[in-house]
Amino acid sequence: MSHDEHHELSFIRKYVFSIDHKVIGIQYGITALCFLFFGFCLMMLMRWQLAYPGQELPVLGKLLGEEFFPGGVMTPDFYNSLGVMHGTIMIFLGVVPLLVGAFGNYVMPLQIGAPDMSFPKLNMASYWIYLCGGCVMLASFFVPGGAANSGWTAYPPLSVTATTGQTWWIIGMVFLITSSLLGSVNFIVTIVQLRAKGLTMFRLPFFVWSQLVTAFLLLLAFPPLEAAGVLQLADRVLGTSFFLPEGLVISGQQLVQGAVPSGGGNPILWQHLFWFLAHPEVYVLILPAMGIVGEIIANNTRKPLWGYRPIVYSSIFLGFMSFIVWAHHMFITGMGTSLSMFFATTTMIISIPSVVILTALVISLYKGSIRFNVPMLFALSFLPMFAIGGLTGLPLGLPASDIHLHDTYYVIGHFHYVVAPGTIFAIFAGVYYWFPKVTGRRMSEGLGKIHFWLSLIGMNGAFMPMFFVGIAGMLRRGYDPAAYAANENLLGMVKMSSWSVWMLGVAQLPFILNFFMSIVAGKKVSANPWEATTLEWSAPSPPPHGNFEAVPVVYRGPYEYSTDDRKDDFFPQHLQAEA
Amino acid sequence: MADSHADISKHVKLYIGVFAALAGLTIVTVLASQVDFSGPGHVVVALLIAGIKATLVAAVFMHLKWERSGWIWWPLVLCAFFFVVLMTLPTLVATESRDRAPAGTWDTIPVREAPAHSGGNAESGH
Amino acid sequence: MSASVLPYTVKPHPVTGVYSGKLGTWLFLASEVMLFGAFFSTYVLLRVGAPTEGAAVWPTHEQTHLSWKIGGFNTLVLIISSVTMVLAWAQLKMNNFSKARLYLIVTFVLAGLFLVVKLTMEYYPKFEAGIRPSTNIFFAAYFVLTGLHALHIVGGMVVIGYFIGPGASLWKKDPEYFTNRIECTGLYWHFVDLVWIFLFPVLYLL
Ligand code: HEM
Ligand SMILES: [Cu+2]
C-alpha cells in the first residue's frame, strides 16, 4: 500500500493479528522463549528425582499436589510425562519456532531486501496454529492420567494403549506440523521470489541459505509424520490396529484378536515413519544455528567467511542426505545386517559436510582481528560444543557400538551437546546480535558476559557427566537410577549433573533481567552498530512497515570485510563502489 | 506459457482429448482387472494404467508440459526421489523381523529392588 | 501491507518465471505427495505383510463389499470435474467470466456428487452392515485413506465455493490475479483427482 494511504491500524491488527513479518517474528520469539523456559523447568523438576530418588521435593513437592506428588515425591508416571513434554516442548515449541519462526521470520526477509514475506496472511496463520498446538500440549497436563507418557518418540504399542494425554499429544503435533508446513512454503517462495535486485543466490548471506535448506526439510519430512500421527490417532480412537501386532498380549489380555479376515499391523512401521521426520528434524535444529553463527563470526572477525561456497554446497548436501539416514536410530530393532550397513554408511557420509562447515567456520577465525563481544562469545563456544556433540554421534551411527550405547545417557549427552550448548548458544548469540535491530538498543555487555560464562559452565557440568554414566550403562528414561546395582558408583555424577542444571537455571536470571531492562533502558545505537555488511543493517532500527526507506539494490557478496580499497573495514552489500 | 486466444482454444481441444483418454483408461483398467493374469500381473497392469493417467493429468491439466521454471521442477524431482525412498519402507520393515535378539536378553540386568509402581516403560525404551 | 504491494503476486518473476502463488501451490503439493506417499507405503506394507493363510488373510473382493461400479462412477465424476476446472481457467484466460463461473459451478456440483455417492452408497451401507474401521486392517486402511481423500475434496469445495461466491469480486478488480488464483485452485484440484486415480485401482480392483 502506498505511503499516502496512512490509515491507522487498530491495536489488534497491529500487534495481535498482525501480518507484518517483524511483528510475527517477535510473537514467535517471545512465545517460544517462554516455552523453552517452561521445558527447562520441567527438566529441573526431573533432575531432582534423578539426584535424590524417592526423596521429597522441597517446597514445590507439596505445591504440585497429591495426584502427581504423593507425599511430595514425584510418581513414575509423572516423571514419564515430564520427559515426554520436555522433549516435545524443547524441540517443537521452543527451538524450531525460535530458529525458524523468530529469527527466520524477522531476519530473513530483511537480509534479502524484501518488504515482507510472500504470503503475509499465511505467515500469521502459521503463528496462530503454532500457538494452538502449544496450548493443546500444555492443556494435556490436565486430562485424566496426565500428559503423554510414552516417550517423545511415541513408540507403539505402548503409545496406543497409553492414557488420554497421548491423544492430545497427537492432536497438538498435527497443529504444529501444519504450522511448520505453511511456514516452510512461505519461506521458500519468499527466498526464491523476493530477493532484492542484484542479490543472486551466491550473494545470499549463509543464514538465508540455511533457512532455505531447512524449509525444504520441513516441507518434505514432516508429512510422513503427520500421516503416522493420523494412523496412531485412528489406532487410539477408532480401534484400528495399524501399529499393533496381531496377537498382542498386555497384562494377560489379548488386545488385537486375530480378527477375521485380517489382523494386526506393524509397530516397527511407526518407528520408520517417525524417524523419517525426526532425523531431518535434527538438521532443522542445527542448520539455522550454523547460519546464525556464520553471520556473527564473519562480522566479528572482520573477515569474509572462509569457504563460503563449500559451506553452502555442504548444507545442501547435508539436507539431501538427512533423508536417507533415519534408520540409524533403529539398529536394535533387529534390522538385517546389510540394511544396518547401508544406514551406517550413509551416516558416516553425512558427517562429512558437517565437518566441512565446522572446519570452514574455524578456519574463518584464523588471522581475524576478533572482537570478543557477547554474541561472538556464544558463537565461538558453539564451535567446540557442536564438535563434541557431533563427534560423540559417530559411535551411535555404527551398529556395533550403538548396541551398547543405545538407550543410555550417552545418547542424551550426545544430542544435548548438539542442541543445548550448540543450538541454544547460537540462539542466545542471535538474540544478542539482532536485539539492536529489533529494538534500536543494545543489551548490556556486562550482564551478557556473566550469562555466558555461567551458562557455559552449567551446560558442560550438566551434560559431560552423562557420557560417563551412559557408557557405564545407566539407562535413559529411567525413573530411579538408584534401583539398579550397576549404577551404584554413578550416583555422584548424576548429582553433579543435577546441580549443574539448577545452576544453569540461575544463570538465566541475568539474561532475563538484561533482556527486559534493555528493551526500555538499553544503550541507544545506530542502525548498524556492529558495522555489518548484510542488508538488514541498512534498514532503520527498528525497521518501519515495509522495511526499507528505499528499495535496496545489491552490488556484492555478503561478507566483504577488510577490503583493501576502502577506509572502513566493511563494505555493505547495498553500497555502490566509488568510481 | 502461450496466452493468446487461439492457443487457449487449441488447449481446450487438448483438454477434451485428455478427458477421453482418461475415461477410456478407466474402462480399460476395470476390464483388465477381470482378466486372469498370472502372478503379480494385475498389480503391474493396474499401476501402469494409473501411472499413465496420472502423467496425463499432471502434464496437461496441471500444465507441467509447458512448465519451464526450474524452481517448480527441482522440488518435484526431489519430492519424487524421497517418495521412492518412502515406498521402500515395506521392504525395509520386512527384513527386520529376521535376526531379532533372543527374548530375555535384557532380563539379566541386576535389579536391586523394583521402584514402587514401575512406570511400565522399561521395555519400550528409545 | 495488503498482499498486492508485494512484487510477483500477479505477474511472473522475470528470472524464476512463476508468480508466487503458483510456486507456493506446487511446494504445498510436493508435501502432499509425501503425505499420501506415507499412507500408500503403509497400505503396501500391511498388505504384503498380511499372512497368506489362516484367519488373518487379506479379504477378498466379496468380503470387502467394494463395488468397482460405484468406484468407477466416482472416478469418472472426478475426472469430469478436473476437466471443467481446467476449462474454467481457460475461459478466464479468454476473458469469459460468466462461462468460467458456470464451469466452476459444475466442478463444485460434481465434487458434491462424489461426496454424496461416497457417503450414501459406500460409507452408509457399510456402517449399516456393522463394518467399522476396527473391523479389520483392510477397512482400517480403506476408511483412513478414503476419509482423508474426502477431506481434501471438502477442502477443495470450500475454495471453489469461495471463488464462485464472495471471491468472485476479485475478477473486477484484478482479472489476472483472479485467473491466477483459479489456476492454483485447479492445481490442487487436479492433485486430488490424481490421488483418486491411484486409490481406485488399489482399493477396488486389486
Ligand atoms: C539446556 C537444558 C537442557 C537440559 C538440562 C536437558 C536435560 C535432559 C535430560 C537429563 C534428559 C533425559 C531425561 C530422561 O531420559 O529421563 C533429556 C531428554 C531429552 N531432551 Fe533435554 N535438556 C535440555 C535441553 C534440551 C533441548 C534444547 C532439547 C531439544 C531441542 C532437548 C530435547 C530433549 C529430548 C528430545 C529428550 C529425550 C527425551 C526422551 O528420552 O524421551 N533438551 N533432556
Ligand atoms: Cu538421526
Describe this entry's structure for a reader.
The complex is a heterotrimer of chains A (579), B (126) and C (206). Chain A has 579 residues and is an all-alpha fold. Chain A is 62% helix and 1% strand. Chain A contains 17 helices and four strands. In chain A, the strands form two sheets. Chain A has a two-stranded antiparallel sheet with strand order 1-2. In chain A, strands 3-4 form a two-stranded antiparallel ribbon. The radius of gyration of chain A is 24 Å and the shape is globular. Helix content of chain B is 61%, strand content 0%. Chain B is built from four helices and no strands. The model of chain B is unreliable at 117-126 (pLDDT under 50). In chain C, helix 1 (20-49) runs parallel beside helix 7. The model of chain C has no long low-confidence stretch (mean pLDDT 92). Chains in contact: A-B, A-C, B-C. At the A-C interface, helix 7, helix 8 and helix 9 of A face helix 1 and helix 5 of C. Bound molecules: protoporphyrin IX containing FE (HEM) and copper (II) ion (CU).
Task: List the secondary-structure elements of chain C in sequence, H or E.
Answer: HHHHHHH
| Overall pLDDT of chain A | 92
Largest sheet of chain C: none
* Structural class category of chain C: mainly alpha
Note poorly predicted spans of chain C.
none
Major sheet of chain A: 2 strands, antiparallel
Q: Percent helix among the residues of chain A?
A: 55-70%
Please identify the structural class of chain A as seen in this structure.
mainly alpha
By CATH, the topology of chain C is: Four Helix Bundle (Hemerythrin (Met), subunit A)
Average pLDDT for all residues of chain C: 92
Succession of helices and strands of chain A? HHHHHHHHEEHHHHHHHEHHE
Q: Would you state the CATH class of chain C?
A: Mainly Alpha
Beta-strand proportion of chain A:
under 5%
Quantity of strands of chain C, as a count: 0
CATH architecture of chain A: Up-down Bundle
CATH architecture of chain C: Up-down Bundle
CATH level-four homologous superfamily name of chain C = Cytochrome c oxidase, subunit III, four-helix bundle
Number of domains of chain A: 1
